[in-house]
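By convention, the token line describes the chain's fold. To illustrate:
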Amino acid sequence: MITQPQAPAITDPDEERRRVQTMRLLAYRDDGPLAAALKGRLGPGLPPVPATLAALVVIVALAVAGTLTDGPILLVPVLVMVVLVVPTAARDHLGKFDWLTPPLLRAAEFLTIILLGLAEDTPKWLLFVLLYIVGYHTYDTVYRTRQSIWPPSWIFLAGLGWEVRLLILGVGAAAGVLTPVTAVLTAYLLVLFSVESVLSWVRLDKASAQAQAQADQDLEQSPEDAAEQVTGDAERA
């Protein structure tokens, strides 16, 4: 089901603009069940851009230093992401540069996936497919929200969010079973995101077609028929 975020009636246009901006950026983040569960328990949270940028810098430093080789060390970049970025979910994302948070987060997520895959010799085509699926989900979310059409909230929870996806891959890499874990995760996300997206857009197109057909019928209706319909509706009322 495609819905818009529910909110009380807002008369202040500036307040409405801030609300929509926050909803969009939070949707672009693609937070999952872990972030949702901890969001209300983290207080004011960390500033989104500095914390996410710091996580990205740490991950790059780990890669450059050559420390991400094999074993439990592969959990480190994942834990860095979780510790630094999950607490930013509590913020309202109304800062001047907070729009940078989603692309920085996606870059850190993708870089972590690539580093884990290379360290564990996961087939590159499998990594590419996983990144493509997550990228498609992000694009689909952006395209919908720019038309004021919000994906259902359950898709973000069912999609596990960036944090749970990374934790699954990190544990798989640390245990030396990253390839099968990646394969299962990729297949699951492929079915989930593609089916939900296709069904949602089909429903939207059907609703648009029905609305257009009704509009065309109203235009073709003669003044006498329109007057008769109005009279009939009034009598029934």
Observations:
- The CA atoms of residues 4 and 149 lie 6 Å apart.
